[in-house]
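agent> call fold_tool(seq_1)
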Amino acid sequence: MPTLNLFTNLPVDAVIASDILKDATKAVAKIIGKPESFVMILLNGGVPIAFAGTEAPAAYGELISIGGLGPSVNGKLSSTIAEILQTKLSIDSDRFYIKFYDSPRPFFGFNGSTF
């Protein structure tokens, strides 16, 4: 159910991508309280991004979930994902935005149906 779409203007090699996918999956599952088996992470590297008028390293994320989101959870997710991006890609936390969507069950499809 929880799906995290990450976009960065940096190229991401396969080893770093794998580390980010693993770390983000564990973090999202733990913080939201959902099983890892339902978490999906998409990582898009080399996307043209300008932030604050420069093309310095930056990232944008969108996290969609059926429940589990709220002010304290969103803050923890934001800081944890920012920390992963800082550690793995050297993207400063002040060059990262993340948007949260709490989706109603009928608006999320899985296994040929909706939840």
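agent> call fold_tool(seq_2)
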Amino acid sequence: MKNYVQPGEHLTLTMTAAVASGDGVLIGAIFGVTQGAAAANQQVVVVRRGVYDLPKLAAQAWTVGAKVYWNDTDKVCTTVASGNTLIGAAVEAAANPSAIGRVLLDGMIR
């Protein structure tokens, strides 16, 4: 197959804002977690699949398997679909309140 480029699980993308290693980022329809820090307009590797501890809306309780969405305005995960981007599912229950949720990123484009 001559047109194959790469698996696509790790992508080098240009950041629209400064990021730290481990930040969740949404670039167009691509969501992932940064492998390093980068300034705005710099490139960094973004990982699109795997299980990550990510910031969540503290006032929510999550159940295992709940759909998890990215709120790009507040840069947190939430179980609220409206206005947010589906990124995966909760792999552990998360209490209300709690600042972190464990999320399985599915790598799908929405």
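agent> summarizing second result for user.
Strands lie at 10-14, 24-27, 30-34, 43-47, 49-55, 67-71, 76-78, 85-90, 100-106. The chain is about 0% helix and 45% strand.
agent> awaiting next instruction.
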